[in-house]
Amino acid sequence: MKAIGLDVGSKTIGVAISDAFGWTAQGLTTIYWNENEMESADEELRKIIEENEVSLVVIGLPKNMNGSIGERGEASERYANYVKEKYQLPVVLWDERLTTMAAERVLLEADISRKKRKKVIDKMAATMILQGYLDSKGGVI
């Protein structure tokens, strides 16, 4: 049983996958999609879900610093509902405040060029979202 972590943006979806024990998250890929056509990521996402025998989807929920849900959070909630219906899998929304900024900081400290950072930032943010969820569960998915 594996979990998949998604960092959903308007143009890209960062994807991370857990190990079979639910202890660690690894960045997998970035899916390019059109947010206005939710099905535009279906082919790639379905393939990942099937190949990895995913049993749980964790989607980052970008909350405002005061805890309220803004426009991006509402978009993530819509996508979470879509994924739950489409793939018939349990979906968890996970507070992702500051994960993209944390991922950016890690990449900056590693002296990764701006061009390379842009290619991996979503995948790294998805990894941080999923790892945060896994840590909260103590390795039990």
From TrEMBL:
<protein>
    <recommendedName>
        <fullName>Putative pre-16S rRNA nuclease</fullName>
        <ecNumber>3.1.-.-</ecNumber>
    </recommendedName>
</protein>
<keyword id="KW-0540">Nuclease</keyword>
<dbReference type="InterPro" id="IPR037027">
    <property type="entry name" value="YqgF/RNaseH-like_dom_sf"/>
</dbReference>
<keyword id="KW-0690">Ribosome biogenesis</keyword>
<comment type="similarity">
    <text>Belongs to the YqgF HJR family.</text>
</comment>
<keyword id="KW-0963">Cytoplasm</keyword>
<dbReference type="InterPro" id="IPR005227">
    <property type="entry name" value="YqgF"/>
</dbReference>
<dbReference type="InterPro" id="IPR006641">
    <property type="entry name" value="YqgF/RNaseH-like_dom"/>
</dbReference>
<keyword id="KW-0378">Hydrolase</keyword>
<dbReference type="Pfam" id="PF03652">
    <property type="entry name" value="RuvX"/>
</dbReference>
<dbReference type="InterPro" id="IPR012337">
    <property type="entry name" value="RNaseH-like_sf"/>
</dbReference>
<comment type="function">
    <text>Could be a nuclease involved in processing of the 5'-end of pre-16S rRNA.</text>
</comment>
<feature type="domain" description="YqgF/RNase H-like">
    <location>
        <begin position="1"/>
        <end position="103"/>
    </location>
</feature>
